[in-house]
Amino acid sequence: MGQMLQIALPKGRLGEKVFKMFAAAGFDCPEALEDTRKLIFENPEAGVCFFWVKPSDVAIYVERGAADVGVVGKDILMEYKPELFELLDLEVGKCRLAVAGKKGFYDSTEHTLRVATKFPSVTMEYYAKKCRDIDIIKLNGSIELAPILGLSDVILDIVETGKTLLENDLEPFETVAEVSARLVANRSAFQFKNEEIQKLLEGLKAQVEAKR
Amino acid sequence: MSIDSTLLKSEEKVILKLRGLYRKYGYTHFKMSKFEEYDLYATNKEFLVSDSVITFTDTSGKLMALKPDVTLSIVKNSADGAGLVNRFYYNENVYRISDKTHHYKEIMQTGLECIGDLTPYHFCEVVRLAAMSLGAISEGSVLNVSHLGVISAALDGQEFGVGRGELLSCIENKNTGGVRALCQQYDIGPARTAFLEALTAAYGEPKEVLATLRAKTKEKKILAALEEFESILALCGRVEGVRLSVDFSLVSDMNYYNGLTFRGYVQGVPTSVLRGGQYDKLMEKMGKTSRAIGFAVYLDLLDRLEKKSDYDVDVLLLVSESTPTDAILKETEALIAKGKTVSVQTKMPEKLRYKQAITLGKESL
């Protein structure tokens, strides 16, 4: 094994799922799943160092070189467009970015459409393609509340099963993009730790293909 | 007076080394003014990295700009002519909006431009100088080289329509899955899809990578472009301490560059520190018949390579108000003569980091 590979994984269920894929690819660190207050987990034998970070921060850690590789949702990549290599669709954490609103909502083009979202860049790009005049309302959570309280006409948000929408009398109208977890790499690390990154990529690719 | 190189910062050392290197190859210094008429940038916006420019009106009422780019100014002042080749190097600050912070940033650049009636020798000279520039910064650097002619040939005749931008972005991000999905969406044939995927993933030693790509296509145009690229790389040879890799992900500057493009990386810096390529399109737009190739080294990024010192000074010399000045001077000069750095203080400073504290008359560690 060559140089130590620094890996940033998203905290939570998705992170644990992809961690198992990394372990199966030969980049294991059993300590990383233990319930401890430690922030960094190393396994020198496997040449790997893991750290768990907030899902939306993984791309920053990788882009800035604090991590060599990481796992990021396609939604985050679409929103922040970090300068990274997006090496593989891990085909886990599947959901979609969708426009949703109150059931029966009629989108009248006579008015500016008010859109509440956590993804202002994606929203702007999506509606610019449709030449639609919109007013973006940037929220940080509980996006579904916005159309119910009249704060917005529609929302553009992550939809997994659509259950939350349904329970609140909302429905998805349009799919903006399919989302899943992606393996990303820092562009400089890709040059200097290419052998390790290629080994990881091949190991993960084999698992993704086997599951199809 | 000789210069103590330990006092120089990483970027200052690099500037000195690069100046020497570029002069050896006949490049002359191009010193430009801080400001340029805004009109130059307004008419060539598509060739700027960021299209926001800091402007002001000068005393004669002309709209001026703080340079966001160096190449345009050099091209404007270069002469065309058969057999004529202009070689310039520069060391300038440019002002651009940062993609990340959306605020203006001063960026220190050094680089060179080779403009004129260029032959394969000139292209080879500039690629080698780019590699040698990286070598001057750090051992074990990597120069990635691409040829936009190969990308253009691979996309030629394929109807990607509005998806072309998205496809280029997938190539730039080495997103082979994205390339495959777009090819399916735009009904691109299986052979071309496989080639585009291979092109996106391609990375490594030039001969090996280009041989793999050649084996994946029968298209004459693509094969000719690959052959042209390979012949330039073969001329370039090796540069000690620098690894040359082929990587077709260098497509983000397709407005600016045509033909050869390259990016350089040094260990310890998370982004590319050198960017360059061939920019005949800009020459054409500016009414020139010459061809051109050049690159810039982003010196501000080299700050990351600076070794952080644990101390601000070697000796903190504590004196009282009643200590005679000649005694302070004598002690200070004696310490400096021993090669120490000294800070004279009457009170123990809160933030100064020092190796040794000496109270005049007493000594303590």
In brief:
The complex is a heterodimer of chains A (212) and B (365). Chain A is of the alpha/beta class and 212 residues long. Chain A has eight helices and eleven strands.
Description:
The complex is a heterodimer of chains A (212) and B (365). Chain A has 212 residues and is of the alpha/beta class. Chain A has two domains: 5-93 and 180-211, D-Maltodextrin-Binding Protein, domain 2, CATH 3.40.190.10; 95-178, Periplasmic binding protein-like II (D-Maltodextrin-Binding Protein, domain 2), CATH 3.40.190. Chain A contains eight helices and eleven strands. Chain A has helices at residues 13-24, 58-63, 74-80, 120-129, 145-148, 163-167, 187-192, 194-211; strands at 5-10, 40-43, 48-53, 69-73, 85-89, 95-102, 113-117, 134-138, 154-159, 170-179, 181-185. The relative contact order of chain A is 0.21. The model of chain A has no long low-confidence stretch (mean pLDDT 94). Chain B is α/β, with parallel strands linked by helices and 365 residues long. Chain B has three domains: 1-138 and 266-308, Bira Bifunctional Protein, Domain 2 (BirA Bifunctional Protein, domain 2); 141-241, no CATH class; 313-359. Helices cover 35% and strands 25% of the residues of chain B. Chain B contains twelve helices and 15 strands. Chain B has helices at 10-24, 38-42, 71-76, 120-137, 148-155, 164-172, 176-185, 190-201, 206-214, 220-236, 280-285, 325-337; strands spanning 28-29, 35-37, 55-57, 63-66, 85-97, 104-116, 141-147, 203-204, 242-247, 258-265, 274-278, 291-298, 313-318, 342-345, 354-359. Chain B has a nine-stranded mixed sheet with strand order 1-5-6-12-11-10-7-9-8. In chain B, strands 2-4-3 form a three-stranded antiparallel sheet. A three-stranded parallel sheet of chain B has the order 14-13-15, covered by helices on one side. In chain B, a hairpin with a 6-residue loop joins strand 5 (85-97) and strand 6. In chain B, helix 4 crosses helix 10 (220-236). The longest helix of chain B is centred in the middle third of the chain and has 18 residues, at 120-137.
